[in-house]
Amino acid sequence: MNKLSKMKKFCALAFASTQVITSTEKALAAETEDSLRVGWSMVDITPGKPVFLAGYSYARVSEGVEDPVSATVLALESPRDGTEVVMVSCDLLNISDSLRDSVRRAVSRAVPELSPQSILMMATHTHNAPYAGTTIRYRPESPPDTDPYGIDVDVIDPVDYVSWASERIADAAVRAWNNRSPGGVAYGLSHAVVGQNRLVAYASGQSQMYGKPNKASFRHIEGYEDHSLNILATYNQGKLSGLVLNIACPSQVGSAFMISADFWHDVRAELRSRLGNKLFILAQTAAAGDQSPQTIRNKAAQYRMLSLARRSWRHEIATRIADAVINTLPLIEKEIDFAPRLQHHVDQLELPRRFIPEDDMLKAKAAVVDGQRAYREMLVELKADPALRARKQWYVDISRAHRAVRRQQNVIHRFTLQQNHPTFTIETHAVRLGDVAFVSNPFELYLDYGIQIQERSPATQTFVIQLAGPGSYLPTKRSIAGGAYGAVPASTDAGPEGGETLVEWSVAALAELFKVEDLGLLPEAGCSWEFRIDPEGKGIESAWHCEAKDSDNWLQIPVPARWSQIETVGDYLGYGWYRTHFAMPKQLRGRSLRLHFGAVDEQAWVYLNGELVGEHSVESTCLSPGYLWDQEFTVDLPANVLSTEGENLLVVRVHSHKGQAGIYRPVQISLR
Asked: Which of 584, 569, 565 is nearest to 535 (CA)?
């Protein structure tokens, strides 16, 4: 057997053996000391007595339980990175500072080693959840808000509910932390049509939330819609243990006087019926301040289809989300990561306040006078005729008057605040989990901002999380011009300037988490790699990706550089091969690495020690060469393929059919 044949046989055997090792190591990776620790729990936070339901401009007292509200907890720990993150999703309208802080204090008492700032809470924005606020948002100096609706009704006091619920949520967080065990994660992107932009624009230039598009003056829907379903799956002991589902839509189909988790209850039931009753599902609302699950257009046609399917709208939403998950899981399970990098950054971000013009303040003062008069008249009427309280939902009108007064009083107060306190503070989180990013904000953030963050994020997939705090709308300039409910000053603590600040913080925080820390293992930029052209396309058959003792027919060319700039190569088009060597430092042995390419013109196939470990090609991306040539991409260098003794052979096969061709931007190796 000649030398070339022996080399080919060696490469074939090496490839086959590494395939077996890779499969085995994936199964055993969960037991290594570097593996991710994953823990789940869930707790019912449904009150046993009537409560105020949050989300409307008037009081609603719960008249029963349509379905329970709950809190779901995912605890993540990376012993290797020394990082822990605890995500808590609640079937609530928002997350008040008082609820968040109560949960953190209780968890800290039980688990002192767990940083309170590692707990990231978020709400699904159901409008049929218990009122869970005891302070006025973004005003830490304010006294407790003990009378949110201005009426005396026999309900659980919001302060008492927050105290009770926070203890239960904290217990669930502790259980999730204590339940953590070696596990892995996989992620993917699917789509489910759930949210629709709810702002209807008319010929006048004005927009209206839930406006009627069948008017002659209707012109368009104001903003964009995003039907992306971001999916993160967790695996413990080789089995699917939980799902994180992130979609740009609040859960507000229902509008009755019943406690309800809204469509997320149906989503959980549907997925558990298909994947097992023990499955945990953590819901996240992506940027969706201008989105809604309510049907805006084609109502008659949509209702007809629901009737034919014999489904409620909630069940239809659940079916769409579940179908998307079921179709995605078999694909992402091919790439379960048992040791993703976990990093977490928390910040107290100063945002500019939405400016309140003096005219708005004066109008608010006049509205307060009128509103207080109407409210007092209703109080007098109730006192004079106690029988009025026997009417069903007698409190609706008087509570509406009270809330209208408070809304205008808030405008007046903010006008005063902006004189000496032009900014306010919010809490923001940025998390890196392997190639996935999570970034949070406390608002009902308009979709445009979420898309800006996602498109500028360095992560492969970015989960934007809204309502990780007390709420209020954060609209765009376009929506402010339209003047719909969510864009007027009274509805917004921050405006477009605040939105821009939030976007820039999010992008910068994610860039820092995903910053490539070059290990310096490859030749310095501009130094030579070996290179040869392959006009006959025989490189693979000739095993050029395997080690060769001689360097005959291999040139020395700089990287990065276009090979057309090399005099001895010229305007050649076709296949070209690059190769270099690097040693694995002792302190990194057993660790996986990542190879970063600034860009390759046009297609690239990457080999490590004779094995194809990744590619950036038409076949792998489904993109044409015209899109590939200037894209960044990464390739993982698995620990089981890296040689811990001696040098590693890195080979890159490039193909270009036009242009200047080659590895023309920097190549770096970092820790995975």
From this structure: 569
Please state the rounded mean pLDDT for residues 84-100: 97
Highest mean pLDDT among 105-119, 516-530, 558-572: 105-119
- Classify 241 as helix, strand or coil: strand
Residue 112 has pLDDT above 90, yes or no: yes
Q: Which of 52, 89, 123 is nearest to 471 (CA)?
A: 123
Here the tokens at position 590 are 């057993």
Two tokens, residue 273: 């019926």
Average pLDDT over residues 325-343: 96
**609 contacts 643 by C-beta, under 8 angstroms:** yes
Q: What are phi and psi of 355, to 5 degrees?
A: -70, 130
d(CA 466, CA 344): 17
Distances (CA, A) of 542 to 97, 422, 550, 551: 65, 69, 14, 14
Read off the amino acid at residue 204. Answer: S
Q: Is there a contact between 76 and 433 (Cβ–Cβ < 8 Å)?
A: yes
Contact assessment for residue 41 and residue 47, using Cβ atoms and an 8 Å cutoff: no
Return the SS3 of 478.
helix
d(CA 166, CA 106): 8
State phi, psi for 210 to the nearest 5 degrees.
Answer: 55, 35
Q: Which two three-digit tokens encode residue 296?
A: 């805006």
CA dist., res. 91 & res. 68, Å (int) = 9
Pseudo-torsion of CA 453, 456, 457, 460, nearest 10°? 120
Which residues pair with residue 574 across a beta bridge?
656
Residues 6+ apart with CB under 8 A from 239: none
- Paired strand residues for 189: 230
Q: Could you tell me which residues are beta bridge partners of residue 425?
A: 350
pLDDT tens string 125-169: 999 999 998 888 888 777 777 789 999 999 999 999 999 999 999
8 SS3 class = helix
Question: Which backbone phi and psi does 469 adopt, to 5 degrees?
Answer: 170, -165
> pLDDT, tens digit, for every residue of 199-226?
999 999 999 999 999 999 999 999 999 9
459 phi and psi, to 5 degrees? -75, 155
Q: What is the structure's pLDDT at 11?
A: 44
Is residue 221 a contact partner of residue 212, using CB atoms and an 8 Å limit? no
Cβ atoms 30, 236 nearer than 8 A? yes
How many Cβ atoms sit within 10 Å of the Cβ of residue 480? 18
C-beta of residue 96 within 8 angstroms of C-beta of residue 135? yes
Tell me phi and psi for residue 468, to 5 degrees: -90, 50
Beta 662-663 vs 600-601: how paired, if at all? antiparallel
CA distance 263 to 283: 11
- Between 3-7, 91-95, 661-665, the lowest mean confidence (pLDDT) is in 3-7
Tell me if 75 sits within 8 A of 40, measured CB to CB.
yes
Residue count of the chain: 672
Would you tell me how many other CB atoms lie within 10 Å of the CB of residue 581? 15
Query: In the block, which residue shows the tokens 């989180």?
Result: 429
Q: What does each C-alpha distance from 419 to 50, 355, 413, 499 come to in angstroms?
A: 41, 10, 10, 21
Q: Does the structure show a pLDDT above 70 at 34?
A: yes
Q: What whole-number percentage of the chain has pLDDT above 90?
A: 85
Does 430 score more than 90 pLDDT? yes
- pTM of the predicted model as reported, rounded to 2 decimal places: 0.90
Mean pLDDT of the chain: 92
Round to whole Å and give the CA distance between 310 and 305: 8
Distance, CA of 260 to CA of 605 (rounded, Å): 52
The CA-atom distances, in angstroms, between 348 and each of 122, 271, 442 are 17, 37, 12
